[in-house]
Design brief:
Strand content of chain A: 15-25%
Largest interface: A-B, 56 and 57 residues
CATH class of the largest domain in chain A: Alpha Beta
Distance between the termini of chain A: 34 Å
Radius of gyration of chain A: 24 Å
InterPro entries (chains A, B): PP2C, PPM-type-like_dom_sf, PPM-type_phosphatase-like_dom
CATH superfamily of the largest domain in chain A: PPM-type phosphatase domain
GO molecular function (chains A, B): [pyruvate dehydrogenase (acetyl-transferring)]-phosphatase activity
Number of strands of chain A: 19
CATH architecture of the largest domain in chain A: 4-Layer Sandwich
Organism (chains A, B): Diceros bicornis minor
Oligomer: homodimer
Protein name (chains A, B): PPM-type phosphatase domain-containing protein
Amino acid sequence: MSAGWFRRRFLPGGLLPAPGTPRPRASPVPYRRPRFLRGSGSGPGTADASRRPDARPVRSPARGRSLPWNAGYAEIINAEKSEFNEDQAACGKLCIRRCEFGAEEDQEWVTLCPEEFLMGHYWALFDGHGGPAAAILAANTLHSCLRRQLEAVVEGMVATQPPMHLSGRCICPSDPQFVEEKGIRAEDLVIGALESAFQECDEVIGRELEASGQVGGCTALVAVSLQGKLYVANAGDSRAILVRRDEVRPLSSEFTPETERQRIQQLAFVYPELLAGEFTRLEFPRRLKGDDLGQKVLFRDHHMTGWSYKCVEKSDLKYPLIHGQGRQARLLGTLAVSRGLGDHQLRVLDTDIQLKPFLLSVPQVTVLDVDQLELQEEDVVVMATDGLWDVLSNEQVARLVRSFLPGNREDPHRFSELAQMLIHSTQGKDDSLTGERQVSYDDVSVFVIPLHSQGQGSSGH
Amino acid sequence: MSAGWFRRRFLPGGLLPAPGTPRPRASPVPYRRPRFLRGSGSGPGTADASRRPDARPVRSPARGRSLPWNAGYAEIINAEKSEFNEDQAACGKLCIRRCEFGAEEDQEWVTLCPEEFLMGHYWALFDGHGGPAAAILAANTLHSCLRRQLEAVVEGMVATQPPMHLSGRCICPSDPQFVEEKGIRAEDLVIGALESAFQECDEVIGRELEASGQVGGCTALVAVSLQGKLYVANAGDSRAILVRRDEVRPLSSEFTPETERQRIQQLAFVYPELLAGEFTRLEFPRRLKGDDLGQKVLFRDHHMTGWSYKCVEKSDLKYPLIHGQGRQARLLGTLAVSRGLGDHQLRVLDTDIQLKPFLLSVPQVTVLDVDQLELQEEDVVVMATDGLWDVLSNEQVARLVRSFLPGNREDPHRFSELAQMLIHSTQGKDDSLTGERQVSYDDVSVFVIPLHSQGQGSSGH
C-alpha cells in the first residue's frame, strides 16, 4: 500500500459532488489495524513496510489495513515489486444530484435535500504497471467521472423508462414505443455512464501523466450498487465473483492479450503499420525460427477460432504480436493486459511501436439484480486483483468464504477479517484451508462486499 | 423447393472425393412423397407448385419432399416469395482421404480402402436473398470446400494431438509441449477447416456469380458429424438446437445487423468512407428528423453496450447504418443478416455503397461432444432457416419433438414426418399442438437429425 493510498481520503461521502453540498449522514470511520500487521506504527498515512518486524525480502504483507467503510471491506498487500504499491483502491458513497432541465441556457443544478439524492455505493480496484502513477490517478479520479456521467443521465435513470429526449418532451408521439421496442432500460444508462466514465478517466490520466512527466497504466475493476442493482465494470485482469451458500457466479471476465486475441489481430490486420514491420500478426504455438521455414505449422489468424496449418514464410519468423500463453501471454512482448487506463506513452522497448492503439479503456459491464436475489446474510461479492486469482480459484475462494463467515456471525468486523484471511492464504499461510501451499508474489487487493446491506432501501434513492 | 434443388443429387457418397474412388456402401435412397403434397406429379426433378391442387396465392407448401438420406431428414417449403426457392439444402456422407506426406514435390494422394476413410456426415441449409443463385452455388460447393480443407489437415485430426508440423517432424524437442500448452486439439483443426471452407466457398460464389452475371447471397448453417463430435457452423440467421428428453440447447446463435451492431459500427468508425457520407454510424431509438436537432436523444456508438444521450447534430439526421429492431433490423437499409456467402455485388439501392465490406463469411462454430452424451433414441438436432424460428420458439419446437417422437417409435420415417410436421406448424396447421395459430410467410427448411446414429462407431474412422 503506497503513501498515495493512505493520503487519499476514504471518508463516506468523499465522493459527494462539491464542498458545501449537504451530505448524507456519515457512517463512523473506525480504524482497525489488520491482524497480520504485527508492527506498531501503522496508522492512516503513516504505514511503512520498513517498520514491520516480519518484513521478508521478496514479498511481505506490508502496509495492509481494513478500509474504513461499512459497506465493503478491503485488504491490500504490497509484494514489494515496486517501492510504492501498484495496487490502489477506492470506495465510498456515490451521491448523484438531479439536474433540473429548463431552456438549454439556463439549466442549473438544483441542490436537493440529502434524501433526494440518488445514492449508491462505489468500490474500485486498480492494478498498476510501470509504476503506481496511473493507478493512483484512477483511484482519485474515476469516481468523479462516474458521478458526472451519471448526473448527466440521472433524469432518465429515475424514469420508469428512459425517455427518448432527456428534456422529456416527446417530439414524435410514438417515441416511448421506439424506446420500448429497443428494450432500453434505466440500467442501460448506468452501463453507458460506466463506459463513458472509464473513457473520460483514461483521457484525464493521459493528460495528467504527460503534464507531470510520469508514465504507467492500470487495470480497473469497479462495482457500483445503485437502485437495487450491482454493476460490475471491468477493464483488465482483476475479477469479481458472487459467493452465496449454494452458488459461485463470476461477475466479470478478464481482458488479456489471450482473451482478446481476435480483436487485437484484427486491428493489426486493418492497420499493419502499427506493427512497423517488426511483429507478425499470426499466432503460432511457439516463436518460429529458421528451421521452420518452408514447413507447414499450426497457426491462427484474426478470423479464426480454430487452428490450421500454413507454410512458413520469412515474415512469419518475426516476433509474434501476442506471445506466450496463460499468465505469460504478452502483447507486443510487453503487456499482460489488453484493457485498462493510461499507458498513453507506453512503447515496445527500444522502438517507437505504441501499445495504446491495441488497448481498450472501455469496460465490460455485468449487472446483478440484487433485489431479485433472495439474499442471505452471508452472500458476498469478492473483488480482487490478479494476485489473488493467480493462486486461488473461484471455488477455493468460495470455500474460504463459506468456511469463515458462519463461524464468525457475532464479529462486526468479519467481512474485513475475511478479506485479510483471503490475502493470508495467498501468502502461503492458511494452507490447511486451501489444502495446498499457494503463494502469490504479486500485489494483492481484495474487497469483500456484503450484499445484504446493498438490497432495496439501502441503495435506492 | 426449386428446380435447382431437385437437379442436385443427394446420393449418399455424393460428397466423395472423386469418381473412381472406392465408395462406402451406399444406403438405400427411398423417395417418399411428403404427406402435405397432395398433388400427384412430384418426383425428383419434376416438382412444380402449379400442379398442386391446394396452392394458395400468397404462400403455399409447394414442392416439398423428404431428403433421401438415412442420417438426417429435411423438409423444405417454398413460400413463393420468388419463382425459385431461396432456401436450399445439402446433405451426404463426407469422406476425407488421408494424404501421405513425403518430400514436398512427390506428395501424392493415396487411395485407401473404404474402411480407412475418415468418414463423417454433412448437413447444410442455405437461405438465399436476391434470388436463389448464391444458395444453389453454396449447396453445390461448400461440401467440396470443406472436404478439401479437412483433407489438408486430416493428418493432424487423427493424431492424439495435432503436431506442430504437419509432416510430423519435430524441429524443436518441446514442440508437443507448446501445442499442449496452447490447448490445441483435433477439434480445433475441424473448426479451422470449417472457417476456411466458408471463406473459400464465398470466393467461389463471388467468381461464379460474376462470371454468369448473376447476383445474390445466402446464409449458411452447416452441421458435420465427425469422430464422435457434431460441429455446427453458422453464418446468418438460421438456427440449430439440440432437443433431448430433459434439455433444449441452442447449438448456434444468429448473426444479424442487430446482434453484430458493435462490429459493424466499429468498421464504419475505422473506415468512414464506407458510408459515403450517406449514413450515420450511430444508433438511435428511431430515425431522427429536423425537430430533433439540438435535443438530447438516446444513442449508442460502437464502443457502447449501454445507452447514453447526445445533443443531435445535422449529421445525426442521416439514415442509420443499422435501422429497425428485431426481425426488421436492416444493414444499410438493405440486408437483414450480417454473415453469409455471396453478395459481392450488392449495393444500396441507387448508390455505389457496397454491403460486402460489412458482411462476414466466417461462421461461428460450436462443438457438441456426442460421444459424451448418454444418448437416448429420441435425441435430435433440429436445424432450420429463419422461417421456422420466426414463428416457433426453441421450447415450442422441443415440445413438438417430444410430443411426436415417442408415439411413433415403430415408424421408420418418423424423423422425416417430424420435419414435415414442424413445417406444417408454421403454416397455421397443427395449431392444436402449438396452442395458437402461427403462420410463416417465408421459405422454411428443416432438418431433423437423429443423434443416436451419430455416436461413436458410425462417424469415427
